[in-house]
Design goal:
This protein is α+β, with helices and mostly antiparallel strands. The protein has one helix at about 1-20, and strands spanning about 35, 45-50, 50-55, 60, 65-70, 70-75, 90-95, 100-105, 110-115, 120-125, 130-135.
């Protein structure tokens, strides 16, 4: 009788362990990428047709965006599949000279610095449209 009870407990314990391992915790930002800041060439006040966008080392705000201030993590494209929406996290990753910024872990916008008409220009790719921002 004792052996049967021990074997039943052992089987239940093994099922619980298997179930626990399958339902492990999601990947957190601390294990997802390295802590960094937004590169200096993208920072500053940028203007486009009367609208202002401000990018600092750890925040982004502007026309069509809610101000997001938080920890910035640099991730790879492969890691971007595991982004978790959060109000305090900004994910960034590079495509050569372009920078993808996903404030709050939502839709990523692509940014690129170019020279246009002799002025420094920040191009923001949002969906199919390209919005140029200039410094004053």
């Amino acid at each position: 009788m004792r052996k049967k009870l021990l074997s039943i407990l052992l089987i239940l314990f093994s099922f619980n362990t298997c179930f626990f391992l399958q339902n492990s915790q999601p990947v957190h930002a601390k294990t997802l990428g390295t802590r960094t800041t937004i590169p200096a060439r993208f920072r500053g006040n940028w203007y486009s047709h009367g609208h202002r966008m401000t990018i600092t080392a750890n925040s982004i705000s502007g026309w069509g965006m809610i101000t997001t201030r938080g920890k910035v993590y640099r991730i790879t494209l492969k890691q971007s599949d595991y982004m978790k929406p959060s109000n305090k996290i900004i994910y960034i990753w590079n495509y050569g000279k372009k920078l993808e910024i996903a404030p709050r872990g939502w839709q990523a916008n692509e940014f690129q610095i170019v020279r246009k008409n002799g002025r420094k220009c920040l191009l923001m790719y949002e969906g199919a449209s390209v919005i140029p921002y200039y410094k004053r």
